[in-house]
TrEMBL record:
Protein name, per record: Uncharacterized protein
Organism: Nyssa sinensis
Keyword set includes Metal-binding: yes
Cofactor(s) named in the record: heme
Keyword Cell membrane: no
Length: 482
């Protein structure tokens, strides 16, 4: 048994590793059974350390959020192999290599690494859905939730508390928006799901991770049990929402995401044909959406408010644009395309502080890149933060906030079209990008028309990876009504 285990956990992955090495890829030396995890932990600044965070705000964040990759790049270049436990990963921060590799791959020949699917299952299940929506209904729900948030801010300011933790506020409003637009439920009902998702995110991603290590889950039994418990509770909450909606036979047609999913599927625990989802699959879709649909957009807005607080000239430029495009009238989804400068700002923020800091794939067949073969099963890790902060791709001003670089160029002047990947690439690209752009522009427009803001002296710059790229110590801003 032990030999079999050793064979499948070490000999087999090592064979794949040797194939990759024969192709000329280098990388840090792994050890059994941790791979390079101990090295990675040593280099990570742990959230909670007394010296975590800095009063100096710099956009040069690659070596803060991925210190081990920044270090290994120096010795092994932009494509190399590293190990998570007994799983070798091909690290890529070279867009040309990525382009040549993905040019040979049909959509279905890529998967997501099995090792991550297992690790993240309590959080996402196996969900993957396509997003479509009714623009008008969504706009009014987004405006309603944002207005509630801004009224709360006005009340806080009037009571003498102009300092507000923007990250917490925006995340909660983005949660309310996804709960209403996609599931037709109030934030009160959605809040339990969010609280549990957040607790699970902290349990799974805060520290002591042993992804890829055989029996790694048993090394942290409490965390594993806690994640499983939270996963079950979230499943039960979503299931009760789904069942309650199923019973609503009368009333207005249900055109939100859950209504559309239900219209096409039988929620009876069985699969009736290939196109319908089982109950568990439906619950998983909801989970993926609940999580993926609010945190990334909330972070894009949060990092935007940080950068606009530091660049008040851009606050003014955006207010001017809003006045020209929207005037004093009501916000309408068709006007949003006219907010061009806001689009450049969004792109620049997604470049400097990409909420999704990496993309992952797993080869579902041998992939040939020129005379190199990447064997079937190889895990691939694409370092989006690394590429977005690469001087060779963006020039000497790579770490400066310059939204105008997107004025005449969708790729912001990046020297390679695959060097800018905030929403991923190819057939697995983010399905919610249009929805997120709509929400981003609506929320930012409403904030900018009501308040001006600057950085609080209590702000501590703390970009860190907790699955997404977050300000780990929050974002306190001082707000002033206009
Ligand atoms: C600024 C906001 C957002 C960013 C930066 C973002 C980024 C990403 C990225 C990088 C991926 C992986 C793509 C790849 O592997 O190539 C992804 C996938 C996905 N996103 Fe987004 N996203 C955002 C907003 C949203 C929203 C609003 C929704 C839903 C309403 C959403 C739903 C999804 C889903 C369902 C997937 C597919 C997951 C899978 O393939 O496993 N995203 N997103």
């Amino acid at each position: 048994m032990l030999w079999r285990l050793f064979y499948s956990c070490w000999i087999l992955p090592n064979r794949a590793y040797q194939k990759l090495r024969k192709n000329g890829f280098g990388g840090p030396t792994p050890s059994f059974p941790m791979g390079n995890i101990n090295d990675m932990k040593k280099r990570v600044i742990i959230n909670g350390d007394s010296d975590f965070g800095s009063s100096k705000v710099t956009n040069d964040i690659h070596s803060t959020v991925f210190p081990y990759f920044a270090q290994w790049q120096k010795s092994h270049g932009k494509v190399f192999i590293y190990w998570l436990g007994t799983e070798p990963f091909l690290y890529i921060a070279d867009p040309e290599f990525l382009k040549r590799m993905s040019a040979r791959v049909m959509g279905k020949s890529w998967g997501k690494p099995t090792v991550f699917k297992n690790d993240r299952e309590p959080l996402f299940g196996k969900g993957l859905i396509m997003v479509e929506g009714d623009d008008w209904a969504m706009t009014s729900l987004m405006v309603e939730s944002t207005t509630n948030m801004l009224d709360r801010w006005t009340a806080l300011i009037s009571s003498g508390k102009p300092e507000i933790d923007i990250e917490r506020e925006i995340t909660s409003t983005a949660g309310e928006i996804i709960a209403k637009t996609s599931f037709g439920i109030s934030y009160e009902n959605g809040r339990k799901v969010f609280e549990k998702l957040k607790a699970m995110q902290l349990t799974l991603f805060k520290s002591n991770r042993s992804v890829g290590v055989p029996f790694g889950k048993f090394m942290h039994p409490q965390k594993t049990l806690e994640a499983q418990r939270l996963g079950k509770e979230i499943n039960a909450l979503l299931l009760s929402t789904i069942t309650a909606r199923k019973k609503l036979k009368d009333g207005a047609p249900q055109t939100d995401l859950l209504g559309l999913l239900l219209a096409k599927n039988h929620v009876d625990g069985s699969r009736t044909d290939q196109k319908t989802l089982t109950t568990q699959e439906l619950v998983d879709e909801c989970k993926t959406f609940f999580f993926g649909g609010h945190e990334t957009t909330a972070l894009a807005l949060t990092w935007t408010l940080l950068l606009l607080a530091m660049h008040p000239g851009w606050q003014d430029q955006l207010r001017e644009e809003i006045k020209e495009v929207i005037g004093d009238g009501e916000l309408d989804a068709t006007m949003l395309a006219g907010l061009k400068k806001m689009g450049w700002v969004m792109n620049e923020v997604l470049r400097l502080y990409s909420p999704a800091p990496n993309a992952q794939r797993q080869a579902r067949g041998d992939i040939q890149v020129d005379d190199i073969i990447i064997p079937n099963g190889t895990n691939i890790w694409i370092d989006v933060v690394g590429m977005h902060h690469d001087k060779a791709l963006w020039g000497d001003d790579v770490n400066e906030f310059r939204p105008e670089r997107f004025e005449d160029d969708l790729y912001g002047g990046c020297k390679h079209k695959m060097g800018f990947l905030p929403f991923g690439f190819g057939g697995r690209m983010c399905v919610g990008r249009n929805l997120s752009m709509m929400e981003y522009k609506i929320v930012l427009t409403l904030i900018l028309t009501k308040f001006s803001f600057c950085l609080s002296p209590n702000y501590c710059h703390s970009p860190a990876i907790l699955l997404s790229l977050k300000p780990a110590l929050g974002l306190p801003l001082i707000l002033q009504p206009l």
